Amino acid sequence: MNRRHFELLEAARRALPEGFKTELSGDIIVMQASPSALHQLNLSKIRRQFDGHTPTGYIDSGNTDLESPQTAKVRNPDLTYLPEAAMTTMESSVPAELALIAIEIVSPSNPENDWVGKLRDYPLMGIPLYLIVDARQKNVTLFSEPENGRYRLREEAAFGEAVHIPEPFGFALDTSTLQPY
Fold this sequence. Notes:
Layout: H1 3-15, E1 20-25, E2 28-33, H2 37-51, E3 58-61, E4 65-68, E5 73-75, E6 79-83, E7 93-95, E8 102-105, H3 111-124, E9 129-134, E10 139-147, E11 150-158, E12 162-165, E13 171-174
Parallel strand pairs: 4-7, 8-9
Antiparallel strand pairs: 1-2, 1-5, 3-6, 4-5, 6-8, 9-10, 10-11, 12-13
């Protein structure tokens, strides 16, 4: 990873007011305001379901930087599951390839970040599952099986339908309680 890019990312974080997220995608720094209460409600409903199926030795983590030096990317998913051992560091980031999944609740102010940028970056970073919850469209999309820089499989469900989350979680995600924007 270009050290200068990482330094710029850290400088942007220090300069922004509290409540902003910053990420790095190649040469682009992405900044975004804190999420709404409705965003957090939907995220909590998703987290509760995943927590009941989390593999031993893994924990949930929100807003943890996932760093991929080989792709020059630092992304910060709304929710991910990482080995507990990887979280015993004072570093601000962990290796992206350790994440079991990246979960994003689409921001109404910047949907392209989740649907374009992160959909491009997460498979390159070695993240095996990517779940997008789009409350604007009232649907959930799971991407899986990364290969050659993209996800091979895509499963969609409208709010109210179940989405099969594969191993290592292995359960049907209930979307009936998710709230639209």
